[in-house]
Amino acid sequence: MNLFTIPVPSPSSLWTTVRSGGAFNVAASFAALWAFVKVLRMLRWRVKTTQLLGPPRTSLIYGVSRDLASSHDRAAMYERWATEYGVVYMIPSVLGQTNVVLCDPKAIAHFYARETWTYVKTPTTLAFLESSIGKGLLWSHGETHRRQRKALTPAFSNAAIRKLTSVFYDSAYKAKGKWDNVIESSKDDDAVIEVQSWMNHISLDTVGIAGFSHDFGSLDGKRVGVAEAFDTIGSNQPSAVDKAVFLLASVFPIILKIPNKRQNLFTKLGITMEQISNELLIRSRREKDVDMSQGGEENSLIGLLIKSEGQDAELYMSAEEVVAQMKVLLLAGYETTSTSLTWALIELSRHPDVQTRLREELLAFGPDPTYDQLKAHLPYLDAVVHETLRLHPPVPESTRLAAEDDVIPLSEPVRTVSGNMTDSISITKGTLFTISMETINRSSAIWGPHAKEFKPDRWLTEEGISGKAKEVQGHRHLLTFVDGPRTCLGKDFAVIEFKNFVFEMRDGPDTPVETVRGVLPRPRVVGEDGTGVPLRIRRYE
User: What's the rounded Cα separation, in Å, for the pair 57 and 241?
Assistant: First the structure.
């Protein structure tokens, strides 16, 4: 018998076992079978997967996962290990699991070329996404992912985004007006403003109008349930118990079904997003805001979703899928845009010379640029935005599972456990992978000796991007844009309107900033509550 061929008992033999033995014997038999299968899979994995070097486990239960979870700079840990063990290495994880970490541009390009087919989300990630967001783009893989993505692609074309320019400006104008009022009412010529909450308002109102033809009105002071649900998660940081539960759930996904405070917050967020999504869909159908027969709004997001509901639609989506897409886009539009805008203001406050140069470019241009002018005539704005996204990708890390065997090519050889050098690695179905976008974007080996510094000038010359960085096959050589260059809609337009203000860190340029957990990682000034980022702002004279 082949060692890796596992005989499956027939239903009749299982029934015979149940009838002839007691419940304890049956349970023991299944436990033994489960253990036997796990052992065989482990043997197969060890035989067929290239065994790589890596750090020793620091915990019998957690491997090095707890060290990573508690670290304030995971990217630095991954980079240090890459320097010590090679551009591809293995790390011990929870309860004996092993993750392959990819820090090699060629290996990562191979990986992403096969993502959603050969490399899929883990059962834990799928269970979490399904319970909180639904079976939308973030959950789906393979053919389902291709169909859903293709159905929504027209809403993110350059032509579609070009039509939304006024929407992006309107939200920024509102924030600008509110800030003017705050400064005017202060005794001095400046005011301290908690900017992250304002970026949240800008992002939510923008995604509401641009995506769903709905003004949430958060910039006008309206209470918005979905915003409160997002903010509550940011205000309640995970406890040590929450972190331990999440780590163990990577082996036993069923643990996620056990209620706990943080899981309940995500469940509440999912319910709130589903309620608003259903309300928006019902309103759009009833009022016929989108007349698909005339095609005037055919490429709007809400229009494409309603169109996909038709039974004769080429890219049909079920009602469940449509609501899930709205929840995904609410989440992505709110979290990624607001986080990126907050980091942009932090970096501009830390680097007044960059802020001054950017303001000069924007004021010299004159009136608010159109979409095409923004892309073609404001190179320093483009450089500031991309440098922000390089250092602070909204999604810093990704874990995937190999759905089939594969061979991954490397750009440089690595040493295996046996001491041999190899320029490719064989992996087996079931292998776990980790890619840290933050590590790749900040790697000194890839981006040069100033990789961790905020230097927008690197984007202005051909020599500014090093040879190794050019091997990273993302948009503009950044893994930030795994989902395409329009991940953070509206960020450029909002930054343009900030030209009328001077920003400073409230407590000086050296104010420490840490990363904490919201739905996605968010910046926070050390010592502040929740996700507070207070900046001192004044009008530019």
Answer: 21
Task: Region of 88 please: left (phi>0), alpha (psi -120 to 50) or beta.
Answer: beta
User: According to the model, what pLDDT value does residue 288 have?
Assistant: 57
What are the start-end ranges of the H helices in 86-157? 105-113, 123-132, 142-152
**Residue ranges in the chain whose pLDDT is less than 70:** 1-24, 26-27, 30-31, 33-46, 287-300, 311-312, 481-494, 497
Non-local (6+) Cβ contacts of 364 within 8 A are: none
Which stretch of DSSP H or E encloses residue 280?
A: helix 261-287
For residue 221, how many other CB atoms are within 10 A of its CB? 8
The pTM for the full model equals 0.87
The number of beta carbons lying within 10 Å of the beta carbon of residue 386 is: 20
**Lookup: tokens for 473:** 């096959």
- The whole-number pLDDT of residue 84 equals 97
Give the pLDDT confidence of 298-345 residue by residue, as tens digits: 556 777 888 887 766 777 888 888 899 899 888 888 888 899 999 999
Distance CA 514, CA 527 (A): 9
Please state, in angstroms and rounded to a whole number, the distance separating the CA atoms of residues 438 and 73: 10
Q: Quick check: 518 and 498 in contact, CB under 8 A? A: no
According to DSSP, residue 50 is labeled: P
Tokens standing for 478?
């950044």
- CA torsion sign, 13 to 15 to 16 to 17? positive
Contact 374, 492 (CB under 8 A): yes
Angle at 99 between CA 95 and CA 103, to 5 degrees: 155
* Percent helix, strand and coil across the chain, each to the nearest 5: 55, 15, 30
Sheet with 534-539: list strands edge to edge: 190-194, 534-539, 501-505
Number of Cβ within 10 Å of residue 201's Cβ equals 23
Burial class (CB in 10 A: 0-12, 13-18, 19+), 277: buried
Give the C-alpha distances (Å, rounded to integers) separating 366 from 4, 360, 501, 527: 69, 10, 16, 40
CA gyration radius, the chain = 25
Burial class of residue 173 in the structure, from the number of CB atoms within 10 Å of its CB (0-12 exposed, 13-18 middle, 19+ buried): middle
Tokens 């202060």 label which residue?
186
Rounded to whole angstroms, how far apart are CA atoms 492 and 496?
6
d(CA 148, CA 416): 40
User: Going by C-beta distance under 8 Å and a sequence separation of 6 or more, which residues neighbour residue 468?
Assistant: 105, 445, 446, 447
Could you give the CA distance from residue 322 to residue 329 in angstroms, rounded to a whole number? 11
What counts of helices (H) and strands (E) characterise the chain? 21, 12
What distance in Å separates the CA atoms of residue 414 and residue 143, rounded to the nearest whole number? 34
pLDDT of residue 464: 81
Structure letter (DSSP) for residue 218: G
